[in-house]
Design brief:
The protein has 207 residues and is mainly alpha-helical. It is 65% helix and 6% strand. It is built from seven helices and four strands, in the order H-H-E-E-H-H-H-E-E-H-H. This is GtrA/DPMS transmembrane domain-containing protein.
Length: 207
């Protein structure tokens, strides 16, 4: 009789089985806020690519770009207005100096969370990549500014306030607006090049 019972138990397709520990854990699991995606990885406005982390990086890049705009314009105005340098030369000098200040801030802050290598040659490699990408962006920036200044913008006179000693005087601001237009286009190109190449994480580059 015992043999027959064992045979029926072995052949029975609906015999009870002992639940595994993994099944018990999954059935009794409680979802806590920590199980949700990290805030930095959450998409904004339902757009997968538009994450919190990327928006924060873009804001940082924008702030660094504002500082670069300030450096660019100060150098341009000093050379063009006060030094009587040619338009293109004064603009190029402003771009050259702002590129380096932007690199320092972007490397330490905007993309400071990435593993980029701590050796001196790694730093110089990033400088080289940044200058290559910035040179391409600067070329576009110069072209846009030159075209705006010579073909798209006419003279735009701005009356100087009396408080600045400019009563009855005006200044043509079209060259300044042309430079700003070039800066905006150049910044967009520079961000993409920096994000995808110059400041790329070394772990992602190894894949």
């Amino acid at each position: 009789m015992l043999t027959a019972y064992i045979a029926r138990w072995a052949l029975c397709p609906t015999r009870p089985t002992k639940p595994s520990l993994s099944n018990l854990r999954s059935e009794n699991r409680v979802d806590y806020p920590g199980n949700e995606p990290l805030v930095a990885d959450r998409a904004l406005l339902g757009i997968t690519f538009l994450t919190v982390a990327r928006v924060k990086r873009l804001v940082k890049f924008g702030l660094v770009g504002v500082s670069g705009v300030f450096v660019n314009l100060v150098v341009f105005e000093a050379l063009f207005r006060l030094g009587a340098f040619p338009f293109s030369l004064a603009n190029a000098a402003g771009i050259a100096l702002s590129i380096f200040t932007n690199f320092l801030l972007n490397d330490a802050w905007t993309w400071g969370d990435r593993k980029k290598g701590a050796r001196r040659r790694d730093w110089f490699a990033r400088v080289g990549k940044y200058y290559i990408s910035a040179a391409a962006a600067a070329g576009v920036q110069l072209a846009v500014a030159w075209a705006m200044n010579h073909y798209l913008l006419g003279p735009i006179q701005l009356d100087l306030p009396a408080a600045l000693g400019g009563a009855g005087q005006s200044v043509d601001i079209s060259p300044t607006l042309a430079v700003l237009s070039g800066i905006i286009v150049g910044m967009g190109i520079n961000f993409l090049a920096g994000h995808l190449w110059a400041f790329r994480d070394i772990e992602d580059a190894a894949e």
